[in-house]
Design a protein that fits this description.
Length: 384
């Protein structure tokens, strides 16, 4: 390892962020170099090399249209960030997910370009670099060295380190970069300058409202949420997005940093929105025609007059507005505090409004662990 690389890696190790690295096709030298400088445990939470197609597909959660593409690099970085967020649990380190997918010199001729897509996704932003390499200008070791140097530079930039390794790009090589900023959107949401924003699994910003969504605080996101969304999507025949409630009727608004932190759990995995819409009528105004995926306890509150100023007339007017906007509810059963499981048929729905509610049968979905229980378990584990 040369001195500039060692010095850069030492600066990375001395910076606050913790990272999960996922690389395929190239970038293994960067990992070896990171581990070769003392202090790597202050930088790396985990490193993954999903090399075989099946391993890659499992890591990404799908089979990509193209394994070496900008979109795939973005998703890899997102999955890495979500993994970092999971591994961090209750700690407060800054996080970054690093993804690299590349096609370089191998033992057989490649028809396509030699290229690499390296992305760094933090809660605040996503930055993706695309490197095109001149075919025949380098051997495999040379191309691997260049991609690994780029990967270290991208990690350094995401870690707030100003130094960078010279890449030595030649004739026929090209390097470009693109950034998506999430932090300004969270700030605007907090100021009520915008009502909502959405982030797709590849980190691009959503242009359209969702057709169906599952709202919550997601503190934390768990298998019950993802399982419910998947079941609802199968029943509806349409994708289900998540919506983080930045404003809750019974709690203070989430600060921008908390919004960004919770959104990072969805990175590379699911479409997610953040919104200042604590009631379903407010959500209906943002997402007309959307199906709201809810639990039994939430559906029960929707038809309780006490949540409408103790006025049945106000409650019915709210349901009328939801129906007029084309919204409805898909309701999953929930376990109560006494250990009893409740489903939609138990609710005394107002006459004439039954078609606003559709049940998800327990045989298709049931999950009895709540976010509250998970938080309590994590806290107890941290105190041991």
């Amino acid at each position: 390892m040369d001195d500039p690389t060692r010095h850069l890696i030492q600066a990375i190790h001395d910076s606050p962020p913790r990272a999960v690295l996922a690389a395929a096709g190239a970038g293994s030298r960067a990992l070896a170099d990171l581990l070769g400088v003392p202090g790597a445990s202050r930088t790396l939470l985990e490193a993954l090399i999903p090399y075989a197609a099946d391993s890659f597909d499992e890591f990404l959660g799908l089979r990509p249209e193209q394994y070496v593409s900008e979109e795939t690099g973005r998703r890899m970085a997102g999955r890495a960030l979500a993994r970092a967020r999971h591994l961090r649990e209750l700690e407060a380190w800054p996080l970054v997910g690093l993804g690299c997918t590349a096609a370089i010199v191998t033992d057989r001729p490649k028809k396509g370009e030699h290229r690499a897509h390296v992305a760094a996704w933090s809660p605040e932003r996503l930055r993706v670099h695309t490197l095109h390499l001149a075919k025949g200008a380098r051997d495999r070791a040379g191309e691997e060295g260049l991609v690994s140097a780029l990967l270290l530079n991208v990690l350094a930039e995401a870690s707030g380190v100003v130094e960078a390794l010279p890449l030595g790009l030649g004739v026929g090589d090209s390097l470009s970069a693109e950034t998506v900023e999430f932090a300004p959107l969270a700030e605007q949401l907090h100021r009520d300058a915008i009502p909502f924003f959405g982030i797709l699994p590849d980190g691009t910003l959503a242009a359209d409202p969702p057709a169906a969504l599952l709202s919550g605080s997601f503190n934390p996101l768990h298998a019950g949420h993802s399982g419910l969304a998947a079941t609802a999507a199968a029943l509806l025949g349409r994708p289900v997005a998540f919506e983080l409630s930045a404003v809750n009727a019974e709690k203070p608004p989430l600060p921008p940093a908390a919004v960004l932190d919770r959104l990072s759990q969805f990175a590379g995995r699911y479409p997610v929105y953040a919104a200042n819409a604590p009631t379903f009528n407010q959500k209906a105004r943002l997402y007309p025609g959307a199906v709201f995926v809810v639990g039994f306890d939430t559906a029960e509150r929707v038809i309780q007059p006490r949540y409408y100023g103790d006025s049945r007339a106000n409650m019915l007017a709210a349901l009328d507005e939801l129906r007029a906007r084309g919204n409805r509810f898909l309701v999953a059963g929930r376990l109560d505090d006494n250990g009893l499981f409740h489903e939609l048929p138990e609710l005394n729905l107002p006459t004439g409004y039954e078609t606003l509610f559709e049940a998800i049968p327990a045989r298709l979905f049931r999950h009895d662990v709540s976010s509250t229980e998970i938080r309590a378990a994590l806290k107890a584990e941290a105190e041991e």
